[in-house]
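Lab notebook page, bench 4
Experiment: in silico fold of construct C2
Operator: M.H.
Input chain length: 207 residues
Purpose: comparison with the prior construct
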Amino acid sequence: MMNIAVFVSGGGTNLQALLDAQDRGEIKNGKITFVLASNESAYALKRAENAGVESAVVSRINYSSKEEYDKAILKALEGRNIDLIVLAGFLSILGDELVNAYKNRIINIHPSLIPLFCGDGFYGKRVHTAVLESGVKVTGATAHFVNEITDGGAIILQKAVPVEQGDNEDILQYRVMRQAEWEILPKAVSLFCEGRIKIYGNKTEII
């Protein structure tokens, strides 16, 4: 059974999707054992408490660099035997030390079809604003591994979601979460814990 740490920054809807999937038995060979928040006001901490999952806050504003923040996170993870880190709405960019320490063991969910609308500066509602301004008719979500390039790691799963007439950022964000993020993130986590993802360079194969 693999130990999963979920990193959060806000409301924790993706954390809840993972917890619900776990309760339904959909995350095979894995269990969420730790939640780490980048700020103490994250409602996701309450979700962790309600689920009986241990949590900690490592606040980004207390550290002047990614390197210092990485060291603080690694210290918080010490002794927990974490096999997989899941970034579920975690808004802080990880540094090279943490990425390398958990190479090919960090999964992120991004609210677009990478390589569109991704990279530095594309997070949260900013992604959906850019989608709406572009005029595209289809968007979606991507579950991918994390490497040293923002949103640049190997893609695991993607799901498309329609952009509908009359959408605003809030409507589109909720549709992408409900129809894509909450579905493919638990699936990607389960595939990892089952040992069913093979990585070849910057591509994955599901076995």
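Observations: Helices lie at 13-23, 44-50, 66-77, 96-101, 125-134, 169-193. The mean pLDDT is 96.
Next step: discuss at group meeting.
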